[in-house]
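Suppose a colleague, Dr. K., hands you the sequence of a protein chain of 449 amino acids and asks what its three-dimensional shape might be. Before reaching for any lab equipment, you can write down a predicted structure in token form. Begin with the sequence itself:
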Amino acid sequence: MTTTPTQSQQYRALGLSTFSFTLCFAVWTIFSIIGIRIAEDLALSDTQLGLLMATPILTGSISRLFLGIWTDRYGGRWVFGILMLTTAACVYLLTFATTYPMLLVGALGVGLAGGSFIVGVAYTAAWFEPKRQGTALGIFGAGNVGSAVTNFGAPFLLVAFGWEQTAQIYATVLAVMGVVFILLAKEDPLASERGGERAKSFMEQMEPLKELRVWRFALYYFFVFGAFVALALWLPHFLIGVYELDIKTAGMIAALYTIPASLFRVLGGWLSDRFGARRVMYWTFGASVLCTFLLSYPPTDYVIHGIEGDIRFTLDMSLPMFVALIFTLGFFMSLGKAAVYKHIPVYYPLHVGAVGGVVGMIGGLGGFILPLTFGALNDLTGVWQSCFMLMFVIVAAALIWMHYAIRTAERVEWAANEERTDLPELASPHLFFPLSHHRKGPLDPPPNP
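The predicted structure, expressed as tokens, is then:
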């Protein structure tokens, strides 16, 4: 039987996991800055640079699956601490790479930092009751601000010391935090329950993945998180190419996107608790469709053949307008990231690591696929704004699928004369993942309305 943690224990766990995740995320996106210098040194194409930026995202995404399972089985304290120490060693070894293939291999090890997300989600969710999990996970998810730390601080380290020493500084800080986490973090409240139960097989832990809903959540996260990571990596290069900025200025402007897309995740968690995750997802996708449509429009010259001669005008987005739209996009994506993960511990309280790991893996794969695709689209089309065209298609598809699924669930509820809720699946018991084998504890979700 689980025990109810005190508020001080909850805040301690939340603070340690959030700070650790912030450092891991800063490491995970390090190639957004040092990759530009490496590309200059090795004369890389945009496609090659996109692959280098995306490779850590691939490892971070795939690793979330087994890291989530390990966290469900062994708890977050040791998994998180060992993960940070292992990643720090990989970042340090990266500095010995001298060729492009060696850098790609090193980037695979750096990507382990991205797996920290699902470890922290499972560890943090175990400390909080369901009605506060959205807010808690929103605060934890604000560790995405680590990408802004890299975009803002890494350019200055890069100019002062070079990319090798910049990576060594990152490795040292992360290793220190790994030791601190192991020493100061406590076992989560579900540790005793895990120890008293028979260890589940891999197939048992993967049982919820048979539900289509899990994969729908994964598509949502492919956009709100995967596209966030992709833009965090791609924006400095985009700004240098389109607006001819220097790397310091480009990094600081990119931070104007990554900071709201990270910190406002806290607000997204609170709004999901207060108004419901479904409504927050509608806000997110609606605003994102509008922003990506406007951002996808390339500079265009128009000629109208008038009565008294040609009339010429140009549509071109200024830098201030671009920054405003990016800030807005980042804000709404941050709300969506929190709303997606609000669902998981409510629907799958004993499978947070497994389900969250798969959703996080698919979302993270967006961070791998999209930067690579952005570079390829640049090389193929010669249009910088092609990256936003692709994002527009993805978010429009997610919005359509979400709306269809919600209307379908509501028709089931109407037919059964059941009360509709903001998360319609919760009002339909047969749509909820079975928990009949689970012993009730003080952290369990309340009965379905």
